Target: Amino acid/peptide transporter (Peptide:H symporter)
Amino acid sequence: MTAQLPSKTHSFSTVFLIEMWERFGFYGMQVLMVTYMIKNLGFDDARSNLVWGAASALIYATPAIGGWVGDKLLGTRRSMLIGASVLTLGYLLLWIPNNGGGLLYIALGVIIVGNGLFKSNAGNLVRKIYEGDESRIDSAFTIYYMAVNIGSTFSMLLTPWIRVKISSMYGETWGWHTGFGVCALGLILGLINYAVMRRSLAHIGSQADSHPVRKDYAAGVLAGSIACVLASAFILDHQSVARACVYLAGILILAIFAWLIARSQRGERSGLVAALILCIQTIFFFIFYQQMSTSLNLFAQHNVNLSFDLFGFHLFNWIPEQFQSLNAIWIVLLSPVLVFIYNTLGSRGRDISVAAKFAWGFAAVAAGFFVYGLSARHAINGQVSSWAMVWGYGLYSLGELLVSGLGLAMIARYVPERMGGFMMGAYFVASGISMYLGSMAANFAAMPQGIMDPETSLRIYTGLFTKLGYVGIGCTLIALAMLPLMKKLSSNHEAHATPLPAVHSEEA
Model:
């Protein structure tokens, strides 16, 4: 008698839970990182922003390699588990108190490698669980995305609170490092849960999962991972090298895109040009996105009244880092609203094009940054209302759902299947580049050392946010001007090409 395979729901639950704990660890670390470098390591604002920008760029780029390792060398299931274990090691390294950047750079290098192995392979497992079941895959990825937001919201609220509580009892150094340690504990819980439920995934994975790992493959991945950790640490410690890598990667991606368009078949060219236009627009969005952990985080440190009051009644206080959780909270609230709007318009034959969604998304982002900028008019003693952050994040998060959530789906729609693997990787690398550019933009509001006056910092931060609002308007106008061209390109593409299967990004 053949043993009955676990249900798809059981298999999915296993991936869902380890993804939830992995995102708990990652966002718990991210929410503290820039402030930790400034307040505990003594970095200035500019250096902290750029170190985190370089780390973000590498974190976005490595999943392209990790997916290939999972498919061809170690197996998708094994790579996800190894990635989670490596991430745990990275957070454990951050738990160790230190007063210099050396251990920080090594720990971030380990996290970069772990994220590369985990991120793409976890998503691939979900896709493999529901392979051939198109009616359920969209629902599965919607629930999967909820894991991202459950894990990130909880950790972005919890780790700053733990940091403050431990600091009050044992000192600032132990407060920061205990906050990072909680991230490691979260992933340890995820790994324990995976160990208990691992049988549900025994039949899921790539072809490499069904064979013992070859020693030469394992040795190669280990050597490559160690090299990646050391290279990442070197890049993080040398910002001139980081900038050179970012510029070189951008030039290479544009050159390869131009080469693919020039060599493409006539029926493919329209889709590639459309993909390039939308990809560039997505990159601009991630420049705005990076402000959440850099300039907006530091704005909350210096110039936001941490008390939430309503009609004269005090509700509660937040810790400055906790404001970053508003992004995930708003996405949870707005996602079903957008789904309802999309379904309603679709049932009436009035679907909104991807290009139009990009235009609306940039308009929402611009409005969000203008809220931050205009909040200075109502500041008291250099402090703006916490509600300004709530509404600014709400508009910004709406823009995120309309723009960045469509990135990988856009690649799947417009890129020929034979170029799909490269373009997915190029999209992630391009997103990483824009993360670093976002940190460079944040440095226009980097506070000079010794400046403590809130009125001065308020002018500097809100000046940047107002400029970003105008940039958002510019992006909106460009997106609107591109609508006729995008409509023509899309029509030409649909007449000649067969799109890739649907692909869902974490932000979708």
Notes: The first strand starts at residue 307 and ends at 310. The mean pLDDT is 82. Residues 93 and 107 are 6 Å apart (CA to CA). Residues 7-237 form a domain with the Growth Hormone; Chain: A; fold (CATH 1.20.1250.20).
